[in-house]
Specification:
This protein is an all-alpha fold and 97 residues long. The chain contains 4 helices and no strands.
Length: 97
Protein backbone atom coordinates (compact mmCIF):
# COMPACT_ATOMS: atom_id res chain seq x y z
CA UNK A 1 0.00 0.00 0.00
CA UNK A 2 1.26 3.46 -0.83
CA UNK A 3 1.96 5.89 1.96
CA UNK A 4 -0.26 8.88 2.53
CA UNK A 5 0.86 11.87 0.47
CA UNK A 6 0.29 15.44 1.50
CA UNK A 7 -1.76 17.70 -0.73
CA UNK A 8 0.19 20.76 0.39
CA UNK A 9 2.14 21.05 -2.89
CA UNK A 10 -0.38 22.48 -5.37
CA UNK A 11 2.01 21.93 -8.30
CA UNK A 12 2.37 18.21 -7.61
CA UNK A 13 -1.30 17.55 -6.85
CA UNK A 14 -2.62 17.11 -10.43
CA UNK A 15 0.15 14.66 -11.30
CA UNK A 16 -0.44 12.72 -8.06
CA UNK A 17 -4.19 12.45 -8.69
CA UNK A 18 -3.61 11.38 -12.32
CA UNK A 19 -1.11 8.73 -11.16
CA UNK A 20 -3.57 7.34 -8.61
CA UNK A 21 -6.35 7.24 -11.20
CA UNK A 22 -4.01 5.63 -13.73
CA UNK A 23 -2.97 2.92 -11.26
CA UNK A 24 -6.60 2.22 -10.38
CA UNK A 25 -7.77 2.10 -14.02
CA UNK A 26 -4.88 -0.21 -14.87
CA UNK A 27 -5.90 -2.58 -12.07
CA UNK A 28 -9.43 -2.70 -13.47
CA UNK A 29 -8.01 -3.53 -16.91
CA UNK A 30 -6.12 -6.59 -15.66
CA UNK A 31 -2.79 -4.79 -15.45
CA UNK A 32 -2.95 -3.25 -18.92
CA UNK A 33 -1.45 0.22 -18.56
CA UNK A 34 -4.04 2.96 -19.02
CA UNK A 35 -2.88 6.46 -19.94
CA UNK A 36 -4.76 9.13 -17.99
CA UNK A 37 -4.96 12.83 -18.76
CA UNK A 38 -6.78 15.64 -16.98
CA UNK A 39 -9.58 15.47 -19.53
CA UNK A 40 -9.94 11.69 -19.57
CA UNK A 41 -13.61 10.84 -19.13
CA UNK A 42 -14.09 8.52 -16.15
CA UNK A 43 -16.73 6.33 -17.75
CA UNK A 44 -16.12 6.57 -21.49
CA UNK A 45 -12.29 6.63 -21.52
CA UNK A 46 -11.47 4.73 -18.34
CA UNK A 47 -14.48 2.42 -18.05
CA UNK A 48 -15.32 3.32 -14.44
CA UNK A 49 -18.83 2.36 -13.39
CA UNK A 50 -20.51 3.74 -10.27
CA UNK A 51 -18.99 1.14 -7.93
CA UNK A 52 -15.50 1.74 -9.34
CA UNK A 53 -15.97 5.50 -8.86
CA UNK A 54 -16.81 5.00 -5.18
CA UNK A 55 -13.72 2.82 -4.71
CA UNK A 56 -11.56 5.40 -6.53
CA UNK A 57 -12.85 8.20 -4.30
CA UNK A 58 -12.03 6.12 -1.20
CA UNK A 59 -8.49 5.51 -2.51
CA UNK A 60 -7.96 9.18 -3.26
CA UNK A 61 -9.11 10.09 0.24
CA UNK A 62 -6.82 7.51 1.87
CA UNK A 63 -3.79 8.23 -0.29
CA UNK A 64 -4.03 12.00 -0.18
CA UNK A 65 -5.40 12.46 3.33
CA UNK A 66 -8.45 14.46 2.27
CA UNK A 67 -12.20 14.19 2.75
CA UNK A 68 -14.20 14.59 -0.45
CA UNK A 69 -17.85 15.56 -0.74
CA UNK A 70 -20.16 12.55 -0.98
CA UNK A 71 -21.46 13.65 -4.38
CA UNK A 72 -18.03 13.64 -6.06
CA UNK A 73 -18.46 10.03 -7.17
CA UNK A 74 -21.69 10.95 -8.94
CA UNK A 75 -20.78 14.39 -10.27
CA UNK A 76 -17.19 13.96 -11.48
CA UNK A 77 -17.03 13.29 -15.21
CA UNK A 78 -13.35 13.83 -15.93
CA UNK A 79 -10.09 13.42 -14.04
CA UNK A 80 -9.89 17.23 -13.86
CA UNK A 81 -13.10 17.17 -11.79
CA UNK A 82 -11.38 14.83 -9.32
CA UNK A 83 -8.32 17.12 -9.14
CA UNK A 84 -10.57 20.08 -8.33
CA UNK A 85 -12.49 18.05 -5.74
CA UNK A 86 -9.22 16.99 -4.06
CA UNK A 87 -8.07 20.63 -3.97
CA UNK A 88 -11.36 21.60 -2.30
CA UNK A 89 -11.12 18.65 0.08
CA UNK A 90 -7.57 19.62 1.03
CA UNK A 91 -8.72 23.14 1.90
CA UNK A 92 -11.50 21.75 4.10
CA UNK A 93 -9.15 19.23 5.76
CA UNK A 94 -6.59 21.92 6.61
CA UNK A 95 -9.30 24.21 8.03
CA UNK A 96 -10.76 21.50 10.30
CA UNK A 97 -9.65 21.53 13.96
Amino acid sequence: MKSQTSTSDPQALPARVRALVEDFASELNRGRRVRVHAHSHLERDLGLDSLARVELIARLERSLGVRLRDRVALEAEQVQDLIEAVRAGARVSRAAP
